[in-house]
Design a protein that fits this description.
- The chain is mainly α.
- The protein has one domain.
- The protein is 55% helix and 0% strand.
- It contains six helices and no strands.
- Helix 1 (33-54) packs antiparallel against helix 2 (69-87) and helix 2 (69-87) runs antiparallel to helix 5 (124-146).
C-alpha cells in the first residue's frame, strides 16, 4: 500500500489542441512531467487511497458502507482528474522537467531530467504502452465506482501500482527492477 504513494508516472505530454472552424491549431504548451506528477497524479491518487483508508474497519477490511456519498464523489472527481491528466500523456509533446529543475529521485538514481527525456524520446511506443495500461485500469475503476465496490478499488490500486512502477523502472530508474509487470 505504501508503494502506491510513490509518484504515479514517469513521463508527460499533451493531446493536440483541436482548432475550431478549421483555423490553424494553436501553439501547444507542453505538459511538464515533474509538475504533472507532483501536482496532479500523485496527490489525486492519494486522495482516492485516503478515502479508502478511511473506510477500513477495526480488522483492516475495506467496506463500501463506510464510504460516504461525499467520499464516493471525491473518488469520482479524483479519478476524472487522473484520467484527464494521464490522457494528456498520449500526445506528441512531453517535457520531463523545466530547464534547471531537479527531478524526483535524481539524487538517488543519478539520472537527470535530460537522461529521462532521452529514454522516453528513444522509445515513445513503450511509454505510450504504460500510459494505455493505466488508462485501462482507470476505465475499470469507473465501473467499480459505479458499483460502489470499495474493496475492488483497493485491489486495483495494487495492480495499478505495479504498472506505475514498471514505467518508472523503464524510464526513471532503469536499475531498479522490482516490478513483475511485463515490458512492451
Amino acid at each position: 500500500m505504501i508503494r502506491r504513494l510513490r509518484p504515479v508516472l514517469a513521463a508527460a505530454a499533451l493531446l493536440p489542441l483541436a482548432a475550431a472552424g478549421g483555423a490553424p491549431a494553436a501553439a501547444e504548451e507542453p505538459v511538464v512531467l515533474a509538475r504533472s506528477m507532483l501536482e496532479v497524479l500523485a496527490p489525486r491518487s492519494n486522495d482516492i487511497v485516503g478515502v479508502l483508508i478511511d473506510s477500513l474497519d477495526a480488522e483492516g477490511e475495506i467496506h463500501a458502507a463506510n464510504v460516504s456519498e461525499d467520499g464516493w464523489a471525491a473518488i469520482e472527481a479524483a479519478l476524472a482528474d487522473l484520467q484527464a491528466e494521464t490522457a494528456r500523456l498520449r500526445g506528441p509533446i512531453q517535457v520531463v522537467a523545466e530547464p534547471g529543475d531537479t527531478i524526483f529521485g535524481e539524487e538517488t538514481s543519478g539520472l537527470s531530467a535530460a537522461d529521462v527525456q532521452a529514454m522516453i524520446d528513444a522509445d515513445r511506443a513503450a511509454f505510450d504502452y504504460y500510459v494505455d495500461l493505466m488508462l485501462a485500469d482507470f476505465a475499470e475503476m469507473e465501473a467499480l465506482i459505479a458499483a460502489r465496490d470499495a474493496a475492488g478499488l483497493w485491489a486495483i490500486a495494487d495492480v495499478l501500482d505495479v504498472k506505475c512502477n514498471a514505467c518508472h523502472e523503464r524510464f526513471w530508474y532503469p536499475d531498479w527492477q522490482e516490478s513483475d509487470q511485463p515490458a512492451p
